[in-house]
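Let's practice the habit of predicting before peeking. Look at the sequence and jot down your guess about where helices and strands might fall. Then scroll down.
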Amino acid sequence: MRAFTLLGASLILAGCGGVQIAPTPELPRALIEPIAAKVGLVVAEDMRNYTHTETRGGVQWVVQLGAGHQKLVNALLNAGFREVIEFASLDAARVADGLQAIFEPRVEQYSFATARDTGGDYVAATIRYRIGVHAADGQLVDTLTLTGYGNSLAGGMSSSAPIEMASRLAMRDAAAKFLTQFPQQPVAKALIRGEALVAKVGAAGAAALGSQVVDIAAVPIVKSRRRTTGGT
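Done guessing? Here is the structure:
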């Protein structure tokens, strides 16, 4: 019956021309003390329009993450810092006056697991972010990576709504990790002291640092456990 239901859902989605979702995070007010620093936020055009597309089980999935990403990083930095100015490019940010640092968050990887992938009980989503932390002149100072995870109970004949929910929860998870762990980083401690960040490597070193390959965590798939009676 479960296999029939999942097959039926796939056929319905395929017949409707695929699935399109646009997860937008819903973040509670962060109960933290913002760092007294003026920073720049770069959300480049490719990030404002970021879309993940793949075909899964004969169904095309289109996950539009750009608007959600922009809302997320704006909320993050405005919660974490006293003053945040958004720019469309790093070139525009580095000619601005008075910045102590420039942040350039990017979606590095997005993946999801449908109810069919997990055995029918839940769906899950993973979003991997890479945040370039630059000095005011645009030189790379550090690179931060974090991964947000989210899951939601599978319901009905379609996985689209639960996966959208799981994606929103993944964004929220990433936000919580950044806000709680960033103040412990060396670059954060410099900003807390009121310093402007300064790159400690040359241009070649910064380029190499920015192009490092990092391992990407896949969506954790946990097989459902069926309850049994009359035994241990």
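How did you do? Residues 165 and 186 are 34 Å apart (CA to CA).
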